[in-house]
Write a sequence for this structure.
């Protein structure tokens, strides 16, 4: 019985040491009730700049932060249900709406699908957290750089 206990005490610290400590804490927003659909529909409007992604690849590396994968990506959401994604490969126009995901949360339903904003949606202090790791996707973090804007013609 001593061996399994020693093994667990050795492995647990290794697992938790792999998680990046600089990931923003969204627990305050999750527990504050700011996840109501009507609030989110207003708070998401504007331009968001991608900051970093945290993902758990199928390797022994565990959770890791990638600060370059989508560098320069900006997502703008307009109040008419349209948006645009600007990145190194160009500009993509898309439509969006909020949908229920994972029973009690909201996420984006986009056409075409925008993977960097997939998953459960949390907004806190001008930061957007697209949490897709609950279903083995990546977690993407954005910072709001512009408030709601009028869609250009």
């Amino acid at each position: 019985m001593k061996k399994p206990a020693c093994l667990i005490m050795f492995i647990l610290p290794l697992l938790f040491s792999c998680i990046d400590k600089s990931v923003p804490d969204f627990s305050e927003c999750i527990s504050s009730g700011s996840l109501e659909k009507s609030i989110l529909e207003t708070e998401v409007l504007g331009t968001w700049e991608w900051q970093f992604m945290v993902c758990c690849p199928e390797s022994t590396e565990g959770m890791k932060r990638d600060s370059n994968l989508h560098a320069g990506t900006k997502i703008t959401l307009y109040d008419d249900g349209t948006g645009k994604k600007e990145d190194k490969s160009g500009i993509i126009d898309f439509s969006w709406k909020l949908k229920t995901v994972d029973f009690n949360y909201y996420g984006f339903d986009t056409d075409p699908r925008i993977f960097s904003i997939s998953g459960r949606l949390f907004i806190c202090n001008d930061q957007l957290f697209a949490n897709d790791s609950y279903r083995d996707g990546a977690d993407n973090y954005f910072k709001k750089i512009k408030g709601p804007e009028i869609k250009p013609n």
User: Anything to note?
Assistant: The two ends are 70 Å apart (CA to CA). Residues 5-21 have pLDDT under 50 and may be disordered.
